[in-house]
Protein backbone atom coordinates (compact mmCIF):
# COMPACT_ATOMS: atom_id res chain seq x y z
CA UNK A 1 0.00 0.00 0.00
CA UNK A 2 1.06 3.57 -0.72
CA UNK A 3 0.13 6.78 1.04
CA UNK A 4 0.06 10.22 -0.54
CA UNK A 5 0.52 13.05 1.95
CA UNK A 6 -0.38 16.45 0.51
CA UNK A 7 -0.33 19.77 2.39
CA UNK A 8 -3.54 21.78 2.11
CA UNK A 9 -3.11 25.17 0.39
CA UNK A 10 0.61 24.84 1.11
CA UNK A 11 1.83 28.39 0.39
CA UNK A 12 -1.01 29.99 2.35
CA UNK A 13 -0.58 27.49 5.19
CA UNK A 14 3.13 28.33 5.51
CA UNK A 15 2.17 31.91 6.41
CA UNK A 16 -0.46 30.72 8.89
CA UNK A 17 2.18 28.69 10.75
CA UNK A 18 3.75 31.90 12.05
CA UNK A 19 0.57 34.02 11.99
CA UNK A 20 -2.03 31.84 13.75
CA UNK A 21 -4.44 34.79 13.87
CA UNK A 22 -4.88 34.31 10.11
CA UNK A 23 -6.50 30.89 10.51
CA UNK A 24 -9.93 30.95 8.89
CA UNK A 25 -9.22 34.12 6.93
CA UNK A 26 -8.96 34.36 3.14
CA UNK A 27 -5.33 34.42 2.00
CA UNK A 28 -3.82 34.75 -1.46
CA UNK A 29 -0.18 34.43 -2.51
CA UNK A 30 1.11 36.33 -5.53
CA UNK A 31 3.64 35.38 -8.19
CA UNK A 32 7.01 37.05 -8.77
CA UNK A 33 6.55 40.83 -8.98
CA UNK A 34 3.10 40.42 -7.42
CA UNK A 35 1.52 39.87 -10.82
CA UNK A 36 -0.87 36.94 -10.47
CA UNK A 37 -2.49 34.79 -7.81
CA UNK A 38 -0.54 31.53 -7.47
CA UNK A 39 -2.05 30.12 -4.25
CA UNK A 40 -5.26 30.56 -2.28
CA UNK A 41 -6.60 29.44 1.05
CA UNK A 42 -9.96 27.63 1.07
CA UNK A 43 -11.66 30.85 2.16
CA UNK A 44 -10.17 32.78 -0.78
CA UNK A 45 -11.30 30.05 -3.17
CA UNK A 46 -14.82 30.37 -1.79
CA UNK A 47 -14.77 34.07 -2.68
CA UNK A 48 -14.25 33.15 -6.32
CA UNK A 49 -10.61 34.21 -6.63
CA UNK A 50 -9.13 32.05 -9.38
CA UNK A 51 -5.69 30.51 -9.73
CA UNK A 52 -3.56 32.61 -12.10
CA UNK A 53 -5.94 35.58 -11.95
CA UNK A 54 -4.16 38.95 -12.28
CA UNK A 55 -3.87 40.62 -8.89
CA UNK A 56 -5.37 43.90 -10.08
CA UNK A 57 -8.61 42.06 -10.96
CA UNK A 58 -8.98 40.92 -7.34
CA UNK A 59 -8.53 44.36 -5.75
CA UNK A 60 -12.24 44.89 -5.13
CA UNK A 61 -12.68 41.47 -3.50
CA UNK A 62 -9.51 41.97 -1.45
CA UNK A 63 -10.84 45.27 -0.04
CA UNK A 64 -14.40 44.04 0.49
CA UNK A 65 -13.50 40.81 2.32
CA UNK A 66 -10.26 41.86 4.01
CA UNK A 67 -8.26 39.26 2.08
CA UNK A 68 -4.70 38.88 3.38
CA UNK A 69 -2.12 39.20 0.57
CA UNK A 70 1.43 37.81 0.53
CA UNK A 71 4.18 37.93 -2.05
CA UNK A 72 5.78 34.59 -2.88
CA UNK A 73 8.34 33.64 -0.23
CA UNK A 74 10.05 30.62 -1.77
CA UNK A 75 12.83 30.57 0.80
CA UNK A 76 10.23 30.00 3.52
CA UNK A 77 8.25 27.44 1.46
CA UNK A 78 11.38 25.47 0.62
CA UNK A 79 12.44 25.23 4.24
CA UNK A 80 8.98 24.19 5.48
CA UNK A 81 8.83 21.60 2.69
CA UNK A 82 12.20 20.15 3.78
CA UNK A 83 10.95 19.86 7.34
CA UNK A 84 7.72 18.18 6.19
CA UNK A 85 9.55 15.59 4.08
CA UNK A 86 12.05 14.91 6.85
CA UNK A 87 9.26 14.33 9.40
CA UNK A 88 7.44 11.95 7.05
CA UNK A 89 10.43 9.58 7.16
CA UNK A 90 9.51 8.91 10.79
CA UNK A 91 6.42 7.06 9.53
CA UNK A 92 8.05 5.26 6.59
CA UNK A 93 11.70 5.47 5.52
CA UNK A 94 10.87 5.06 1.81
CA UNK A 95 9.52 8.49 0.86
CA UNK A 96 9.29 9.85 -2.69
CA UNK A 97 9.17 13.63 -2.75
CA UNK A 98 6.75 14.25 -5.59
CA UNK A 99 6.53 18.05 -5.31
CA UNK A 100 7.15 20.81 -2.80
CA UNK A 101 4.02 19.81 -0.83
CA UNK A 102 3.39 16.17 -1.82
CA UNK A 103 5.10 12.88 -1.02
CA UNK A 104 4.37 9.19 -1.52
CA UNK A 105 5.15 6.76 1.33
CA UNK A 106 5.62 2.98 1.09
CA UNK A 107 3.62 1.45 3.96
CA UNK A 108 3.81 -2.35 3.69
CA UNK A 109 6.52 -3.05 6.26
CA UNK A 110 5.26 -0.69 8.92
CA UNK A 111 1.56 -1.41 9.24
CA UNK A 112 2.12 -3.55 12.34
CA UNK A 113 3.14 -0.46 14.29
CA UNK A 114 -0.26 1.14 13.74
CA UNK A 115 -3.70 -0.36 14.41
CA UNK A 116 -4.93 0.26 10.84
CA UNK A 117 -4.25 2.29 7.73
CA UNK A 118 -6.87 4.73 8.97
CA UNK A 119 -5.01 5.02 12.28
CA UNK A 120 -1.72 5.58 10.48
CA UNK A 121 -3.27 8.29 8.30
CA UNK A 122 -4.74 10.05 11.31
CA UNK A 123 -1.41 9.81 13.14
CA UNK A 124 0.40 11.45 10.20
CA UNK A 125 -2.19 14.17 9.97
CA UNK A 126 -2.19 14.94 13.70
CA UNK A 127 1.59 14.84 13.94
CA UNK A 128 2.09 17.31 11.09
CA UNK A 129 -0.44 19.61 12.71
CA UNK A 130 1.31 19.37 16.07
CA UNK A 131 4.93 19.51 14.87
CA UNK A 132 4.60 21.95 11.99
CA UNK A 133 1.11 23.46 12.40
CA UNK A 134 0.62 22.34 8.81
CA UNK A 135 -2.72 20.79 7.69
CA UNK A 136 -2.28 17.78 5.41
CA UNK A 137 -4.55 15.31 3.64
CA UNK A 138 -3.69 11.60 3.51
CA UNK A 139 -4.84 9.22 0.78
CA UNK A 140 -3.97 5.52 0.96
CA UNK A 141 -4.36 2.99 -1.84
CA UNK A 142 -2.65 0.01 -3.50
CA UNK A 143 -1.23 2.13 -6.35
CA UNK A 144 -0.05 5.70 -6.79
CA UNK A 145 -3.07 6.61 -8.91
CA UNK A 146 -5.53 5.19 -6.36
CA UNK A 147 -3.63 6.99 -3.56
CA UNK A 148 -4.09 10.20 -5.57
CA UNK A 149 -7.82 9.50 -5.88
CA UNK A 150 -8.02 8.82 -2.14
CA UNK A 151 -6.14 12.02 -1.32
CA UNK A 152 -8.49 14.05 -3.49
CA UNK A 153 -11.51 12.54 -1.72
CA UNK A 154 -9.91 13.18 1.69
CA UNK A 155 -9.75 16.87 0.83
CA UNK A 156 -13.24 17.38 -0.62
CA UNK A 157 -15.24 15.19 1.79
CA UNK A 158 -15.21 16.71 5.31
CA UNK A 159 -16.73 13.55 6.81
CA UNK A 160 -13.46 11.67 6.07
CA UNK A 161 -11.57 13.92 8.48
CA UNK A 162 -8.67 14.36 6.06
CA UNK A 163 -7.90 10.64 5.62
CA UNK A 164 -9.25 8.31 2.93
CA UNK A 165 -8.25 4.64 2.72
CA UNK A 166 -8.97 2.47 -0.34
CA UNK A 167 -8.01 -0.95 1.04
CA UNK A 168 -10.81 -3.10 -0.37
CA UNK A 169 -12.42 -3.63 -3.77
CA UNK A 170 -15.70 -2.24 -2.45
CA UNK A 171 -14.03 0.95 -1.23
CA UNK A 172 -12.20 1.37 -4.57
CA UNK A 173 -15.38 0.80 -6.59
CA UNK A 174 -17.29 3.34 -4.51
CA UNK A 175 -14.49 5.92 -4.82
CA UNK A 176 -14.15 5.57 -8.60
CA UNK A 177 -17.90 5.41 -9.31
CA UNK A 178 -18.49 9.16 -9.22
CA UNK A 179 -14.90 10.38 -9.58
CA UNK A 180 -14.75 12.81 -12.57
CA UNK A 181 -12.43 11.73 -15.36
CA UNK A 182 -10.83 15.20 -15.51
CA UNK A 183 -9.66 14.83 -11.89
CA UNK A 184 -7.81 11.56 -12.51
CA UNK A 185 -4.04 11.96 -12.19
CA UNK A 186 -2.42 11.76 -15.64
CA UNK A 187 -5.51 12.50 -17.76
CA UNK A 188 -4.88 15.72 -19.68
CA UNK A 189 -7.33 18.06 -21.36
CA UNK A 190 -7.10 16.44 -24.83
CA UNK A 191 -7.58 12.96 -23.40
CA UNK A 192 -10.61 14.16 -21.43
CA UNK A 193 -12.25 15.36 -24.65
CA UNK A 194 -11.55 12.06 -26.42
CA UNK A 195 -12.87 10.00 -23.52
CA UNK A 196 -16.01 12.09 -23.06
CA UNK A 197 -16.83 11.71 -26.76
CA UNK A 198 -16.89 7.96 -26.07
CA UNK A 199 -19.19 8.47 -23.08
CA UNK A 200 -16.45 7.89 -20.48
CA UNK A 201 -16.97 10.44 -17.73
CA UNK A 202 -15.84 8.74 -14.52
CA UNK A 203 -12.76 6.89 -13.31
CA UNK A 204 -14.92 3.78 -12.86
CA UNK A 205 -15.87 3.80 -16.56
CA UNK A 206 -12.23 4.37 -17.54
CA UNK A 207 -11.14 1.38 -15.47
CA UNK A 208 -13.52 -0.91 -17.38
CA UNK A 209 -12.37 -0.03 -20.93
CA UNK A 210 -10.69 -2.49 -23.29
CA UNK A 211 -6.88 -2.54 -23.09
CA UNK A 212 -6.28 -2.37 -26.85
CA UNK A 213 -8.68 0.53 -27.26
CA UNK A 214 -7.19 2.65 -24.44
CA UNK A 215 -3.68 2.02 -25.76
CA UNK A 216 -4.75 3.32 -29.18
CA UNK A 217 -6.40 6.40 -27.67
CA UNK A 218 -3.95 7.26 -24.85
CA UNK A 219 -0.82 5.26 -25.80
CA UNK A 220 0.93 2.99 -23.33
CA UNK A 221 0.71 5.65 -20.64
CA UNK A 222 -3.09 5.42 -20.75
CA UNK A 223 -2.87 1.64 -20.46
CA UNK A 224 -0.66 1.96 -17.39
CA UNK A 225 -3.13 4.42 -15.90
CA UNK A 226 -6.03 1.99 -16.38
CA UNK A 227 -4.00 -0.82 -14.79
CA UNK A 228 -3.27 1.44 -11.82
CA UNK A 229 -7.00 2.09 -11.44
CA UNK A 230 -7.47 -1.69 -11.40
CA UNK A 231 -5.03 -1.94 -8.50
CA UNK A 232 -2.00 -3.17 -10.46
CA UNK A 233 1.06 -0.99 -9.63
CA UNK A 234 2.74 0.39 -12.76
CA UNK A 235 4.27 3.54 -11.27
CA UNK A 236 6.83 2.46 -8.71
CA UNK A 237 8.11 4.50 -5.78
CA UNK A 238 11.14 6.55 -6.81
CA UNK A 239 13.01 7.50 -3.64
CA UNK A 240 16.13 8.63 -5.52
CA UNK A 241 14.83 10.79 -8.37
CA UNK A 242 17.39 11.54 -11.11
CA UNK A 243 18.71 15.09 -11.45
CA UNK A 244 16.77 17.44 -13.67
CA UNK A 245 17.46 17.26 -17.40
CA UNK A 246 16.90 20.97 -17.92
CA UNK A 247 16.78 24.11 -15.79
CA UNK A 248 14.98 27.22 -17.00
CA UNK A 249 13.47 30.48 -15.82
CA UNK A 250 11.40 33.25 -17.38
CA UNK A 251 10.17 35.84 -14.86
CA UNK A 252 8.60 39.01 -16.23
CA UNK A 253 10.22 42.45 -15.97
CA UNK A 254 7.23 43.97 -14.18
CA UNK A 255 7.22 46.70 -16.81
CA UNK A 256 8.13 46.90 -20.47
CA UNK A 257 11.81 47.44 -21.24
CA UNK A 258 13.07 48.66 -24.62
CA UNK A 259 16.87 48.73 -24.21
CA UNK A 260 19.42 45.95 -24.52
CA UNK A 261 21.56 46.96 -21.52
CA UNK A 262 18.74 46.57 -19.00
CA UNK A 263 17.62 43.29 -20.58
CA UNK A 264 21.20 42.01 -20.42
CA UNK A 265 21.22 42.91 -16.74
CA UNK A 266 18.02 40.86 -16.24
CA UNK A 267 19.54 37.98 -18.18
CA UNK A 268 22.61 38.06 -15.92
CA UNK A 269 20.45 37.94 -12.80
CA UNK A 270 18.37 35.01 -14.12
CA UNK A 271 21.46 33.14 -15.28
CA UNK A 272 23.16 33.57 -11.91
CA UNK A 273 20.14 32.01 -10.19
CA UNK A 274 19.82 28.97 -12.44
CA UNK A 275 23.59 28.40 -12.45
CA UNK A 276 23.38 28.14 -8.65
CA UNK A 277 20.74 25.42 -9.13
CA UNK A 278 22.95 23.74 -11.73
CA UNK A 279 25.88 23.57 -9.31
CA UNK A 280 23.61 22.52 -6.44
CA UNK A 281 22.57 19.38 -8.30
CA UNK A 282 26.24 18.84 -9.27
CA UNK A 283 25.79 19.13 -13.04
CA UNK A 284 27.39 20.88 -16.00
CA UNK A 285 25.40 22.25 -18.93
CA UNK A 286 26.30 21.83 -22.60
CA UNK A 287 23.67 24.03 -24.25
CA UNK A 288 22.09 27.35 -23.39
CA UNK A 289 18.89 28.74 -24.94
CA UNK A 290 17.85 32.39 -24.65
CA UNK A 291 14.52 33.84 -25.72
CA UNK A 292 12.98 37.28 -25.72
CA UNK A 293 9.39 38.40 -26.21
CA UNK A 294 7.01 41.30 -25.96
CA UNK A 295 3.62 41.32 -24.21
CA UNK A 296 1.01 39.88 -26.62
CA UNK A 297 -1.81 41.58 -24.71
CA UNK A 298 -0.28 45.07 -24.60
CA UNK A 299 -1.98 48.00 -26.30
CA UNK A 300 -0.31 51.20 -27.33
CA UNK A 301 -0.96 54.05 -24.85
CA UNK A 302 -2.99 56.82 -26.44
CA UNK A 303 -4.67 55.02 -29.34
CA UNK A 304 -5.12 51.64 -27.55
CA UNK A 305 -4.32 49.75 -30.71
CA UNK A 306 -2.50 46.40 -30.32
CA UNK A 307 1.21 47.05 -29.78
CA UNK A 308 3.66 45.62 -32.31
CA UNK A 309 4.92 42.22 -31.31
CA UNK A 310 8.22 40.39 -31.53
CA UNK A 311 9.63 37.19 -30.12
CA UNK A 312 12.69 35.15 -30.95
CA UNK A 313 15.04 32.59 -29.44
CA UNK A 314 18.52 31.28 -29.98
CA UNK A 315 20.24 28.08 -28.87
CA UNK A 316 23.99 28.03 -28.34
CA UNK A 317 25.96 24.83 -27.91
CA UNK A 318 28.92 25.42 -25.60
CA UNK A 319 32.38 24.17 -26.67
CA UNK A 320 32.46 22.11 -23.47
CA UNK A 321 30.03 21.49 -20.59
CA UNK A 322 30.55 23.85 -17.67
CA UNK A 323 28.81 25.19 -14.58
CA UNK A 324 30.70 28.48 -14.43
CA UNK A 325 28.40 31.50 -14.59
CA UNK A 326 31.30 33.51 -16.00
CA UNK A 327 31.69 31.16 -18.95
CA UNK A 328 27.99 30.65 -19.68
CA UNK A 329 27.10 34.35 -19.54
CA UNK A 330 29.43 35.08 -22.48
CA UNK A 331 27.44 32.80 -24.78
CA UNK A 332 24.05 33.76 -23.34
CA UNK A 333 24.73 37.50 -23.73
CA UNK A 334 25.94 36.97 -27.30
CA UNK A 335 22.78 35.05 -28.08
CA UNK A 336 20.63 37.78 -26.60
CA UNK A 337 22.43 40.42 -28.65
CA UNK A 338 21.82 38.37 -31.81
CA UNK A 339 18.04 38.17 -31.34
CA UNK A 340 17.46 41.66 -29.88
CA UNK A 341 15.66 44.11 -32.15
CA UNK A 342 15.50 47.82 -31.44
CA UNK A 343 12.06 49.50 -31.38
CA UNK A 344 10.10 46.98 -29.29
CA UNK A 345 8.96 47.06 -25.68
CA UNK A 346 9.94 43.74 -24.16
CA UNK A 347 8.14 41.95 -21.35
CA UNK A 348 10.30 38.90 -20.64
CA UNK A 349 13.69 37.33 -21.24
CA UNK A 350 14.03 33.62 -20.58
CA UNK A 351 16.96 31.26 -20.35
CA UNK A 352 17.23 27.47 -20.28
CA UNK A 353 20.19 25.18 -19.60
CA UNK A 354 20.07 21.74 -21.25
CA UNK A 355 22.35 18.82 -22.14
CA UNK A 356 23.14 18.46 -18.46
CA UNK A 357 25.89 16.02 -17.48
CA UNK A 358 27.45 15.07 -14.11
CA UNK A 359 29.89 17.55 -12.59
CA UNK A 360 32.84 15.17 -13.04
CA UNK A 361 32.21 14.81 -16.78
CA UNK A 362 35.25 15.85 -18.86
CA UNK A 363 35.75 15.27 -22.57
CA UNK A 364 38.33 17.26 -24.48
CA UNK A 365 38.02 17.58 -28.24
CA UNK A 366 40.68 17.94 -30.92
CA UNK A 367 40.09 21.66 -31.23
CA UNK A 368 38.65 22.47 -27.80
CA UNK A 369 39.94 22.33 -24.28
CA UNK A 370 37.87 21.35 -21.28
CA UNK A 371 36.16 23.83 -18.96
CA UNK A 372 38.26 26.29 -17.00
CA UNK A 373 38.57 24.53 -13.64
CA UNK A 374 39.52 27.77 -11.89
CA UNK A 375 36.23 29.40 -12.92
CA UNK A 376 34.20 26.38 -11.77
CA UNK A 377 35.93 26.50 -8.37
CA UNK A 378 35.42 30.26 -8.21
CA UNK A 379 31.67 29.86 -8.81
CA UNK A 380 31.51 27.28 -6.01
CA UNK A 381 33.25 29.71 -3.64
CA UNK A 382 30.82 32.50 -4.61
CA UNK A 383 27.90 30.16 -3.83
CA UNK A 384 29.31 29.46 -0.36
CA UNK A 385 29.88 33.14 0.40
CA UNK A 386 26.37 34.09 -0.77
CA UNK A 387 24.81 31.26 1.20
CA UNK A 388 26.52 32.48 4.35
CA UNK A 389 26.20 36.25 3.95
CA UNK A 390 23.10 36.64 1.78
CA UNK A 391 22.10 36.47 -1.86
CA UNK A 392 24.18 38.52 -4.31
CA UNK A 393 26.74 39.67 -1.74
CA UNK A 394 29.22 38.54 -4.39
CA UNK A 395 27.97 38.99 -7.94
CA UNK A 396 29.08 39.69 -11.47
CA UNK A 397 29.95 43.30 -12.25
CA UNK A 398 27.34 43.34 -15.04
CA UNK A 399 24.60 42.36 -12.60
CA UNK A 400 22.32 45.00 -11.02
CA UNK A 401 22.95 47.42 -13.86
CA UNK A 402 19.68 49.15 -13.05
CA UNK A 403 18.87 49.43 -9.33
CA UNK A 404 15.15 49.61 -10.20
CA UNK A 405 15.23 46.27 -12.00
CA UNK A 406 15.27 43.65 -9.19
CA UNK A 407 11.99 42.27 -7.99
CA UNK A 408 10.46 44.28 -5.18
CA UNK A 409 7.68 42.17 -3.67
CA UNK A 410 5.35 44.49 -1.78
CA UNK A 411 3.83 41.85 0.50
CA UNK A 412 6.86 39.74 1.38
CA UNK A 413 6.64 38.07 4.79
CA UNK A 414 9.69 37.44 7.02
CA UNK A 415 11.76 34.31 6.31
CA UNK A 416 11.19 33.04 9.81
CA UNK A 417 13.26 29.88 9.62
CA UNK A 418 16.26 30.88 7.49
CA UNK A 419 17.19 34.45 8.49
CA UNK A 420 18.53 35.35 11.92
CA UNK A 421 16.98 38.81 11.68
CA UNK A 422 13.54 37.33 10.92
CA UNK A 423 13.33 34.85 13.79
CA UNK A 424 10.26 35.42 15.98
CA UNK A 425 10.91 36.87 19.42
CA UNK A 426 9.11 35.66 22.56
CA UNK A 427 8.54 38.23 25.31
Task: Write the SSE topology.
Layout: E1 2-7, H1 10-18, E2 27-30, E3 37-40, H2 42-46, H3 59-65, E4 68-71, H4 74-88, E5 95-99, E6 102-106, H5 117-132, E7 136-141, H6 144-156, E8 163-165, H7 169-177, H8 189-197, H9 203-207, H10 211-229, E9 247-249, E10 252-257, H11 260-280, E11 283-294, E12 311-322, H12 325-339, E13 346-358, H13 373-389
Parallel strand pairs: 2-4, 7-8
Antiparallel strand pairs: 1-6, 1-7, 2-3, 5-6, 9-13, 10-13, 11-12, 11-13
Keywords: DNA damage, DNA repair, SOS mutagenesis, SOS response
Domain UmuC: 2-188
Protein name: DNA polymerase V subunit UmuC
Describe, in short, the structure shown.
This protein is of the alpha+beta class.
Any descriptors?
427 residues; DNA polymerase, domain 1; Dna Ligase, domain 1; 3 domains; five-stranded mixed beta sheet; 13 strands; 37% helix; globular; DNA/RNA_pol_sf; SOS response; DUF4113; DNA repair
Amino acid sequence: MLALVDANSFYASCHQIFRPELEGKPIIVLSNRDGNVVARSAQAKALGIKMGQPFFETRELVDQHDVVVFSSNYELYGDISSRLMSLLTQFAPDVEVYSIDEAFLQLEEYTGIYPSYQGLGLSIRESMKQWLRLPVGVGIGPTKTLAKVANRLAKIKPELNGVCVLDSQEAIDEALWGFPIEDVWGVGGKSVSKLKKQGIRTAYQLREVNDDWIQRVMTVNGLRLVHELRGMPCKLLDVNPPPRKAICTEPGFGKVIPDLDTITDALTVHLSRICEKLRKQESLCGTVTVWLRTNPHRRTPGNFLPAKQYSNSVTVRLPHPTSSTLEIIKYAASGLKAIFKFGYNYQRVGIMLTDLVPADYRQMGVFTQGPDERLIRLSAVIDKVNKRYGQDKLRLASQMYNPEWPMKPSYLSPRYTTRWEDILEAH
